[in-house]
Design brief:
Elements lengths: L2 H23 L3 H23 L28 H31 L14 H4 L2
Helix pairs in contact: 1-2, 2-3
Length: 130
Amino acid sequence: MNGLALVFYGGILLLIAVGIWGILSRRNLIKVIMAITIIATGVNLLLVSVGYISGRAAPIVGGDTGIDASSTTGSVVDPIPQALVLTAIVIGLATTALALVAAVGYYRKTGSLELKSWSYGLTNEKEVKK
C-alpha cells in the first residue's frame, strides 16, 4: 500500500470519527442527523476505495476506454461496489430527508431541537424539562 492510499484511508477514518464524535457530543437533533450523514459518506468512500483495483479500466464497453466487447473481464474493475454505493447514496438521501421531516415535527411538538427535552416516555411536562 502506497502513501497516497494511506492518506486516503486516513481521511475516510477521519470522516467516520468526526461523525461518531458528532453523534456522541451534540444534543441538537439536526446536528446528530448531519453527523449520521457524514458517517454514511465515509462508509461510501470506503466501499468505493476497496472496490478499486490499480491498473484496471472502468467497465464501459466502447467509447474512449479501449475496451471492446471481446476483451477479457480481467482488465476491468468490478462495477458492483460502485453500483452499491450509488444505491446507498439514494437511500441515504431519502432517510436523511425523512429524519429531517421527523425533526421538524419534533420541533413543532416540543418547541426545541435539543435532545435534552426528549421525554423518554414521561408525560408530565415539568419532569421532562429537568
